[in-house]
Amino acid sequence: MSINNFADPDAAGVEKLSLVVFSGSFEKVHYALVMASAALATGRAVTLFFTMEASRALLAPSGWRHLRPDAQGATATSLDFGYSERGVATFEELLSACADLGAKFMVCEMGLRALGLEHEKRRAELTIEVGGVVTFLNDARKNGEMLFI
Length: 149
Description:
By secondary structure, the protein is α/β, with parallel strands linked by helices. 36% of the residues lie in helices and 17% in strands. It has six helices and five strands, in the order H-E-H-E-H-H-E-H-E-H-E. The N terminus is likely disordered.
């Protein structure tokens, strides 16, 4: 394999990373974006399937600020600021990187309905497909990897 083929997932023998982003924890959703952006940067196709509390991350204008932090006494905003101060990519930077690198964003219609969020406005700068588990599983590749976060 030549270096020129590295960005081509089929040439590299790499299929796809499919992430089920379920947790409403800011830190876990943030890290799902870290994993997705790294996979995209190394030539993998990526689908992020947001469901249940994690769905809030895709709400306009910055629903991620309503994710609950695991750190005692913190807020999503304070954690994000702390990451930025230490040179760690912020939530918005990671979300933008994923979009710019071609991640596919999906949100679970059942998860939205379960939380009463089906009519909430989603982020306009992202192309977000609303679908169910069957849609997500059909999108995942047979030889791909799947992570549940």
